[in-house]
Amino acid sequence: MPTTLDSLYRYPVKGLTPERLGSVALQPGRGVPTDRRYALAKPDGAYRADAFVPLSKREYFVLLNTERLAGLRTRFDEDAQTVEVTVQGHRVLEADLTTADGREAFVELYARVADLPDGVRPVLAEQEGYNFTDNAKNGPRMMHSISLVSLASVRDLSERIGHDLDPLRFRSNVYVDGLEPWAERDWVGRELQLGEVRVRVLDETGRCAATEVDPTTARRDVPVVRLLHEHCGHENVGVFAEVLSGGVLRPGDSVVPGDPVVAGSPVVPA
């Protein structure tokens, strides 16, 4: 079976709804456009818009600490800069994130979702040129990487633990299929050709308790990280890759790994 790109996703607001893409144009050294552009920072945390430094995901409202976020559905309109929020198919908010009123309405809704005390609001974080990815604190190169997950590995893990896992638990940008389970673990340091796009794999993706949350039910139901360790001997699902040469990615594109890393060579070039 040939290895192909199955699906593409972005996550405009960190911790909120994945948005499936029909295609995506990538540029060298940059991630998926609009991916994790916004985040909901804790009001009593370390985030400061006027003195910003990269922070741990624990400084934001994400599935790791607020699983009920998965119960709402958001859709970001990149042209209009608006976000629509629905609950069980009913629209409860459409907010213009370029206006103070729109941003306030958005954080007010999520204050209720997170059950914050009266008058306490999340801070809608946005920083020019910054993406609130989990590995952003490891430097610009990792911040602007794309994430890839093999569906074969998710299926294998599901079989091992006896629970059918939705691949969207892993919140990847790129899902590929046609590999042997866990073959992507050997990609670190190698280049891949993804359709028109050339990438270099930088590292595996270590997983956290956010994967315990079912993206459909918004319930924390499976201890994925513990089960990964017990059944597979590691806690990684997927890899991060930097874009070397740009182009347009589309579902169905071929995925061709380059040569293995030569023993003794650096995994991630300086």
From TrEMBL:
GO molecular function annotations of the record: catalytic activity; molybdenum ion binding; pyridoxal phosphate binding
The MOSC domain, residue ranges: 118-258
Pfam families assigned to the protein according to its UniProt record, in alphabetical order: MOSC, MOSC_N
Origin species: Rathayibacter rubneri
SUPFAM superfamilies in the record: PK beta-barrel domain-like
Signal peptide: none
Species lineage: Bacteria, Bacillati, Actinomycetota, Actinomycetes, Micrococcales
InterPro entries: MoCF_Sase_C, MOCOS_middle, MOSC_domain, Pyrv_Knase-like_insert_dom_sf
Protein name in the entry: MOSC domain-containing protein
